[in-house]
Design a protein that fits this description.
This protein has 290 residues and is α/β, with parallel strands linked by helices. 51% of the residues lie in helices and 13% in strands. Strands 1, 2, 3, 4, 5, 6, 7, 8 and 9 form a nine-stranded mixed sheet that branches.
Length: 290
């Protein structure tokens, strides 16, 4: 029986995800590298800010960090409770997920890779899509807890599978963004009203989540407020490309997308919303999409 839950990593997504856990558990521990943020979460949501070793002594342990390497580094400083389930919501590397699964299994801990999709608005509303990879019995045990911040929970296969799905999903998102920006560039050059064009596209076969929820709201409005950092999308595309290389597949479009998104150095990309990559296309063609 699940009695206690913890959440490690209170970034843009984790901050909101952790807040929903109080609906399903009366004891929710939180930890963040900037510990003041954990204390703030405690004050706002009624969770309990604890040290890292305390955080990993609960029945269910969530983590949501920038990279798989960040998650791996945690194990140098803590030892999870035997019999617990570690649910890693990081957009991670499949091979590292497999390695962590084996490592924790030897310690009597189940590990699930469980990346999420839905951006910060989905995290705040508790309507995220959660992809699950790993032991299915552990997943079924943890499902009621995950449901606290999820709209769709889908088991996709063995350890590492969910990380792979998330990487491909985000690469497809990047592809949709870039292709739509190119299409609108054609229309802009031809003198078409882009807002009207987007309305037509969204009622036709060319629509996508990008055309419905990103292009007008971020690019055409020139409002590039950061919701999902460009460097994190670059990381996810890189994971997908590594999977392509390892599988020895000839997939030129996705490789080309990586080239376009890597035009902005990761040092600068960490300060930008992913939608701001469109500006590189605008500069190349000396036109602005609005």
């Amino acid at each position: 029986m699940i009695q206690s839950v913890s959440f490690i990593g209170l970034g843009a997504m984790g901050w909101h995800m952790a807040s929903h856990l109080t609906k399903v558990s009366g004891q929710v521990h939180v930890w963040n590298r900037n510990f003041e943020k954990a204390k703030e979460h405690e004050q706002i949501f009624g969770t309990k800010a604890v040290c890292l070793q305390q955080a990993v002594q609960t029945d269910i342990i969530f983590s949501c960090l920038p990279t798989s390497q960040d998650v791996e580094s945690l194990f140098k400083n803590c030892s999870p409770k035997q019999g617990s389930i570690w649910i890693d919501c990081t957009s991670g590397v499949p091979d590292i997920g497999k390695r962590l699964n084996q490592q924790l299994k030897h310690q009597g801990v189940d590990y699930l890779d469980a990346p999420v999709s839905g951006q910060t608005v989905g995290a705040e509303r508790g309507t995220l899509t959660v992809m699950i990879g790993g032991d299915q019995a552990a997943f079924e045990k943890a499902r009621p807890i995950i449901q606290a911040f999820a709209d769709l929970i889908e088991y996709v296969g063995d350890s590492g599978s969910a990380f792979a799905v998330k990487a491909v999903n985000n690469t497809l998102m990047a592809t949709h963004l870039w292709a739509l920006a190119e299409g609108l560039s054609v229309l802009k050059a031809y003198g078409v009203n882009l807002h009207s064009a987007i309305n037509c596209i969204n009622h036709s076969s060319g629509k996508s989540n990008i055309s419905e929820n990103i292009m007008a709201q971020r690019v055409l409005s020139r409002n590039f407020d950061k919701t999902f950092a460009l460097n994190l999308l670059q990381k996810d595309i890189g994971i997908a490309i590594d999977l392509i290389t390892a599988s020895n597949l000839d997939l030129p479009t996705l490789n080309l997308i990586q080239q376009q998104f890597n035009q902005i150095h990761k040092t600068d990309a960490q300060h930008l919303d992913f939608s701001a990559v469109v500006k590189t296309l605008e500069q190349r063609n000396q036109l602005e999409l609005y």
